[in-house]
Design brief:
By secondary structure, the chain is of the alpha+beta class. The chain contains 17 helices and 23 strands. It has a seven-stranded antiparallel β-sheet with strand order 3-2-4-1-10-9-11. The chain has a six-stranded antiparallel β-sheet with strand order 5-6-7-8-12-13, covered by helices on one side.
Length: about 475
């Protein structure tokens, strides 16, 4: 078990046909940190959809030959995925495409529905046949069902939002419109911008807007539906204010890129502040502060600035390997491939080692061992998040307490298990400083869930259901 994010979504609408797949390709590269299992692009060429989806990184899936096969178009939807719900296989790749009586639709989704199992059961009892084990298909079914009686696709999305609950940032494409929607809690980020030549861009993070040369316009508000068409942009706000805003605080701690700004708060600034808070609340006598690349670096800078302990680059990341947190497989074996210690920097030094989280402790133990082997005298580990104590139902791949080390051991015991001289977590009550005192969800740390808790939270619940038949 480890920390994962579900995915990144991207969409565009242009006034004239453009190389939509190329723009999506650049956008997905910028969002690759949000998921490395699969990716996909669907292009709308005058109402005709063309797509390509497969397992792998963006660079692996979208070869020159594949890119050449995708047509120009005025709209497109794209997705990069780490599957918190649903198995890692090609059938679960997104965007999901639907053909129905009222036309075609492609949909990409970031987040997890907290009532997905309940809705899926109701749909199956009414005759629906599911082809994937992703709860995104549940959303697609409900939107399609509502579209049969709704006067427009945006009305169908609005009606679907009365039914689905939990975390969802959606980008949806019909033959004539591009639609995005953010759940009323605002669990996951979503924003939009516009290029100089009038192309509207929707993305999970504004770093993807920058990657395609778009000017950031604003974040999509929690509960808001935006409709992009030839007539311009229309906002529907009937679901705004239905729930207390609950942006996932782990977006600031780990998920988002440091150059992104989410709901007005710089991710880099948030992580630097986390480091400052750690220096004040969990100080350590040390010679150097070292951050674990990449999401521990900003917090390490903050710790150094606040404490006066010099910041040093003691760990080097292999830039040709993705995040071990997100890459499938045995992370323990990947740590040495991903990271190496700089002996001249760490030898004989008392080190404050900053990382963003500890889930099972396996990765932390390997990193501590690397530094010990390089000659570090002392290692005082500091974590820029509180301990994980509860499962998450909104897109973070922590579906039970079974493998959460903090649920079974004290801080001192964990320090001994990972080989550190001391260990300190960010105090939960200080999360407000990190998030800029905005409303946020920290249920994985404090157990205060904004929604009703699912009866079966396991990420493989749909596969288990099929195996039990």
């Amino acid at each position: 078990m480890s920390v994962h994010e579900e995915c990144g979504v991207f969409g565009l609408m242009a006034p004239e046909p453009v190389d939509a797949a190329v723009i999506c390709h650049h956008g997905l590269y910028a969002l690759q940190h949000r998921g490395q299992e699969s990716c996909g692009i669907v292009v709308n060429d005058d109402g005709v959809f063309a797509s390509h989806k497969d397992l792998g990184l963006v660079s692996e899936v979208f070869t020159k030959e594949v890119m050449a096969s995708l047509p120009r178009g005025t709209m497109a939807v794209a997705h990069t995925r780490y599957g918190t719900t649903g198995a890692t296989n090609r059938v679960n790749c997104q965007p999901i495409e639907v053909n129905h009586q009222k036309g075609r639709m492609a949909i990409a989704h970031n987040g997890n529905l907290s009532n997905a199992a309940e809705l899926r059961s109701e749909l199956e009892l009414s005759g629906a046949i599911f082809h994937t084990s992703s709860d995104t298909e549940t959303i697609a079914y409900i939107v399609t069902k509502e579209r049969l009686t709704a006067p427009s696709i945006e009305e169908a999305v609005s009606r679907a939002m009365n039914v689905i609950d939990g975390a969802y940032s959606l980008v949806l494409m019909s033959p004539q419109k591009l639609i995005c929607a953010r759940d009323p809690y605002g669990f996951r980020p979503l924003c939009y911008g516009q290029t100089e030549d009038g192309i509207y861009i929707v993305a999970s993070e504004d770093c993807a807007l920058k990657a395609v040369g778009a000017r950031f316009v604003r974040d999509v508000d929690p509960g808001e539906i935006l409709i992009f068409s030839k007539e311009g942009v229309v906002s529907r706000r009937e679901h705004c204010g239905e729930r207390k805003k609950s942006l996932c605080v782990f977006e600031y701690i780990y998920f988002a890129r440091p150059d992104s700004v989410i709901d007005g708060r710089s991710v880099h600034a948030a992580r630097v502040e986390a480091g400052r808070v750690l220096a004040r609340t969990r100080p350590a006598e040390a010679d150097i502060v070292v951050g674990v690349p990449d999401s521990g670096l900003d917090a390490a800078i903050g710790f150094s600035r606040e404490s006066g302990v010099p910041y040093g680059i003691g760990l080097i990341k292999n830039k040709y390997i993705g995040r071990t947190f997100i890459a499938p497989g045995d992370r323990a074996d990947q740590v040495r491939i991903k990271l190496s210690a700089i002996e001249d920097v760490v030898r004989g030094k008392r080190i404050v080692l900053i990382d963003d989280s500890i889930v099972r402790g396996t990765t932390s133990g390997r990193i501590v061992s690397l530094l010990r082997e390089a000659g570090a005298k002392e290692i005082h580990m500091r974590i820029s998040a509180p301990p994980f104590l509860f499962p998450c139902f909104y897109g973070t791949d922590i579906d039970s307490q079974d493998n959460l080390i903090a649920c079974r051991h004290t801080v001192d015991e964990i320090a001994e298990m990972i080989g550190a001289d001391s260990l300190g977590y960010l105090p939960a009550e200080e999360l407000c400083e990190l998030a800029g005192c905005r409303d946020y969800c920290a249920a994985c740390f404090d157990g205060n869930y904004p929604t009703r808790i699912p009866t079966d939270p396991r990420k493989d619940r749909f596969e288990r259901k099929l195996s039990e038949l």
